[in-house]
Structure to design on (238 residues):
């Protein structure tokens, strides 16, 4: 056997795939995460040609070598001779994502708040016009709808921390109409022996006979609302 042939075969056995042209083509393709067929389409050859390149059965012509160099963004010297390390695959610019889901869930709190305030104001207006206790049920119904909207938002929040934040944000602004409705119903029921139910704390329907209870309910409303508002607001900023 020819000694030169023996030396060449020994040298080939000691080479790793990355030290050959075939190995570098295969390594670059895998770094890109593409198939042989996709690489073949990029450089305008058949898949069988790429397979033969990677198995060292044939070598790419100069034109195809330049095409490989452009496609992989490496030099022809790297493909033919190799370098200490292969270049990193080109960075991919991240695609802009839509707004965070947490912001969209804030819409549930906003909608629930609108239901509560609109319900209280309309219930007050209807009661003031007709003087019927059934008008207060409108405010109660709107408050229940607002609570249902908030419940949907809380159920869509995957993390407990986000649910707590939504809950505190809701009470920060909704304690005012909800407490007014609750104390208004309580005050009107106590002042009239349950004959009248109104959605707000007002002396209009009982006169000034219950002035002490009237002042007490307004004071309780203010203390409750300020306490809840300050507590929720401070925890939101923690």
């Amino acid at each position: 056997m020819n000694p030169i042939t023996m030396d060449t075969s020994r040298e080939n056995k000691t080479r790793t795939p990355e030290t050959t042209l075939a190995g570098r083509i295969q390594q670059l393709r895998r770094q890109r995460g593409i198939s042989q067929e996709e690489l073949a389409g990029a450089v305008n050859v058949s898949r069988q040609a790429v397979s033969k390149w990677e198995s060292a059965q044939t070598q790419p012509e100069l034109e195809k070598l330049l095409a490989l160099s452009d496609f992989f963004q490496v030099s022809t010297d790297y493909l033919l001779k190799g370098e200490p390390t292969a270049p990193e695959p080109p960075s991919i610019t991240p695609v802009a994502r839509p707004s965070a889901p947490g912001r969209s869930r804030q819409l549930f709190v906003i909608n629930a708040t609108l239901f509560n305030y609109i319900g209280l104001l309309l219930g007050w207006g209807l009661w003031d016009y007709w003087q019927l206790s059934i008008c207060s049920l409108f405010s109660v119904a709107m408050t229940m709808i607002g609570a249902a909207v908030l419940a949907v938002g809380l159920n869509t929040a995957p993390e407990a921390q986000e649910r707590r934040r939504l809950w505190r944000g809701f009470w920060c602004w909704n304690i005012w109409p909800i407490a007014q409705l609750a104390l208004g119903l309580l005050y009107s029921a106590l002042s009239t022996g349950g004959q009248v139910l109104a959605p707000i704390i007002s002396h209009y329907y009982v006169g000034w006979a219950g002035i002490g209870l009237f002042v007490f309910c307004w004071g309780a409303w203010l203390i409750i609302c300020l306490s809840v508002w300050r507590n929720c607001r401070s925890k939101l900023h923690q």
